[in-house]
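Morning!

This is the sequence you dropped in the shared folder:
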Amino acid sequence: MPSIKIPTPLRVYTGQQAQVSVTGATIGEALTDLTRQYPELRQHLFNGEQLRNFVNVYVGDEDIRFLNGMETDISETDALRIIPTIAGGRA
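The structure's back. Tokens below.
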């Protein structure tokens, strides 16, 4: 079963779980299962049906934007990571 590593700021929506097992054959299906398990997480990951611009999803070391996006195939043993973009600081 694929798993998704949850970044620290989003763990409040997963009962403090750092990693969640999901089902699905694609990134989109896996994220749908994740947000089915933890509905409050959806608004932080998606804007409508699209991933928010500041949400990056990786399969291993590969950013899904450089693969097949939400249609990227995954296997039972894949480890996914959600990495929010961090912005700000001093100019």
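Headline: The two ends are 44 Å apart (CA to CA).

More detail when I'm at my desk.
O.
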